[in-house]
Amino acid sequence: MQNLIEIKDVRHAYRTDAGPLPVLDGLNVSVPEGGFVAVVGPSGCGKSTLTRLIAGLMKPDHGEVWLHGERVKGPRATVGMAFQNPVLLEWRTILKNVLLPLEIVPSKLSRKQAEDRARFLLSLVGLEGFEDKRPSELSGGMRQRASLCRALIHQPEVLILDEPFGALDAFTREDLWQTMHRVKEREPFTGVLITHDLRESIFLADQVVVLSGRPARTQYVLDIPSNGPRTLDDLYTPVAAEQLNILRHQIQIAQGRSTAEEGAA
Fold first, then answer.
1. Higher per-residue pLDDT: 115 or 107
2. Which residues form the ABC transporter domain (predicted)?
3. pTM across the whole model
């Protein structure tokens, strides 16, 4: 299967008053077309920096980012993004919030086609009937669903999810995980998920990439075999327990805790 995203030997550092702060160091990540990759790692290791590089919002100091066979040199209209904070505009209805990207990114859709698509997406995530509501009239989970629709409205090739469910309660978060599977089945895309939740990573992704501590490199890659549609019950199987144990151990290594704990033992 062809890789739609290629991160090749990427190095990047932020400029600070104290000098360069290395964040990424020889990072390599590949995402096949139609795949869904979750990226996990210690806080501050450069996960969000990775999403900005893929979206073309910043350029690496060294190395290359490729998207669909083209080197990324600037923002790409074929990339959709959803963040932890939905950032919906209170003076616009939910429907008009979802339509906002089409006012910025050129689209071949007519106004009616755009509205029909927005209504379809809102229905897909369980927000049918809320099109004319304002963001303040919706719960946090409902606002995040609307944010997801907004990220998908222009039919992006790549959907970047930067901890979109991190601020939600456990029940709402799990409900949105199931929604994500329904959305991907109806709206195919290549996904990159940034998360601190290991359960979320194995439930949503085909592959989990563990980044090392800063400056980050690709420390470990865990493939998640697919055996058909996933349900929350899949998180309570021996296979899932083993996957979570592997990831927890890798995070301990990335945090520099594993060796110290083994030495103490």
1. 115
2. 5-238
3. 0.89
